[in-house]
Amino acid sequence: MKNFAQNCERIAATPKKLEKIAIVAEFLKSAPTDEASVAAVFLSGRPFPVWEETTLQVGGALLWRVVRELSAKSEAELTAAYRKLGDLGAVAAEVLSAQVEAGDPAHPTLVEVQTTFRTIAAARGPGAKGALARELLSQVTPLEAKYIIKIMTGDLRIGLKESLVEEAIARAYGATLSEVQRANMLLGDIGETLRLAAGGRLAKARMRLFHPLGLMLASPAASSEEALSYFENSLVEDKYDGIRAQAHVSGDEVRIFSRTRDEITESFPELPDALAGLPEGVIFDGEIVAWDYGEEDPGRALPFSALGRRLGRKKVSEQLMREVPVAYLVFDVLYGNNELLIDRPLSERATLLDELLARRSTSSRARTHGLHQGKLSFGSEEQRLNAQVIRAPVFNASSATELDQLFEAAQARGNEGLMIKDPESAYTPGRRGKSWLKLKRELATLDVVVTAVEYGHGKRIGVLSDYTFAVWHGNRLANIGKAYSGLTDAEIGEMTKWFLEHKVEDQGFRLIVEPKIVLEVAFNNMMRSDRHESGYALRFPRIARLRPDKSPEDADTIETVREIYEKQERSS
Ligand code: AMP
Hints:
This protein has 572 residues and is an alpha+beta fold. It has 22 helices and 21 strands. A hairpin with an 8-residue loop joins strand 13 (445-455) and strand 14 (464-473). Helix 1 packs antiparallel against helix 2 (17-30), helix 4 packs across helix 9 and helix 11 (162-173) packs across helix 12. It is globular and about 75 Å long. Bound molecules: adenosine monophosphate. The site of adenosine monophosphate has 11 residues, from strand 2. Adenosine monophosphate binds at residues 218, 237, 239-240, 244, 259, 287, 331, 392, 419, 438.
């Protein structure tokens, strides 16, 4: 752990990506494989591999209490240190120094630290967990405590992402980056990936179902003409306004993951039954939408706002399921017939998807009908509780006129616009390319991260309603604008609470906040400007909506901003 913490300090000290990778590679290579395997997991900012889904269930407040007790500092002293450093791990390194110098630190290995993490995860209740955390932290040096706490809170803050750890593994063991990425994607375990790399066995990695894969993302297109400039023929679907969902199915086991890779199966208890029944493992990609089952088959999508009541809930009552019925619109298949399908062209995946869904519907529909003995009519109560899994209809278009007609039809059906896809394209997890294009109502919106908030004026006087937001510029956030309209009073109230709990620095009227909240902002046009760090400013920015389904990494980049600006200049 000591060596690990020292290396983390070195990684944090250099802003250069290549140097960071070199330090990690050298460290991994010099450690025994068992240690290196755990190090890879810790360096990705996690106590355990992704696929395990084990969580410590130790909140910041509990760790705060442990650090306070161990350091014997007052609440005010600790708060002052936190204000200055903005990170509990760094605070611990500062306030614990006096206490440990006298003692005799145990310098546990990384494997031992992870074993203790497992004991903490298995312990019940904050009392037991707190005692174990306290014991661990009391035996280590302040520098080790700093990184143990950072791993426990899930953020190392040394400018290292899992993708850089992948690069370091490739470098340390002489593999290519894509071999490492592929194994890590299939296994959901960077530690196991490292073991395979160390043994020269990366090609042996096999898909592990029930851990989420990254989702393929779309780029905005300003017009039908632009969309068709990337590929001639296109497969076109409606753009449904709901939440992205990746479903893993094997026999009767079904689990659904959101775009932030969180499991959301419990929020949609009506979906697993509708998906179950496929004999071999399958991974689907699609959108969960609030659905009006109405009279016509198969019904139609309701606006995103209708789905709001179903989001972020662990338990869903039958009444809520009836009030806000949902459907799962499936548009892709990533794994099926015991095979990873992401490298196949979309046109082939689409055919396979039709076949798989046809097989599922005969088995699961037969079961549903059996249950209700033919009483099932469209729009009935039973139908609502047995949500539909619907193959998102696909259209072909090869001219702007055809696309325009499809766009109007999609909007007439109440959908947001179109998704225009290259039939030849592979599925690229976690990447935003030009193989999927989104054509929406607004000319352009940006997904941005809130970096600072201010108290409002007039009726917004006691609430934090003015948001400064940023886009990615390399691996840092560059502010691009400020907006204060678009959210409801209830949303502003909730956000105020969140921001107060997640402030990094209090500047009186203004708070610098943890960059975690993603907003979609609309605007009239864009200008070059020195007012903001990004070098651009938005005219009449307004918050289109909160995007709790997106994580900060999903926000737009300065390259997208530049593209929108150049497009606007060309067309004006
Ligand atoms: P946006 O959220 O505006 O960046 O648009 C991309 C999102 O549209 C995807 O992440 C999906 O959640 C959603 N979406 C809706 N319909 C489709 C579709 N037919 N194909 C792909 N994505 C879709």
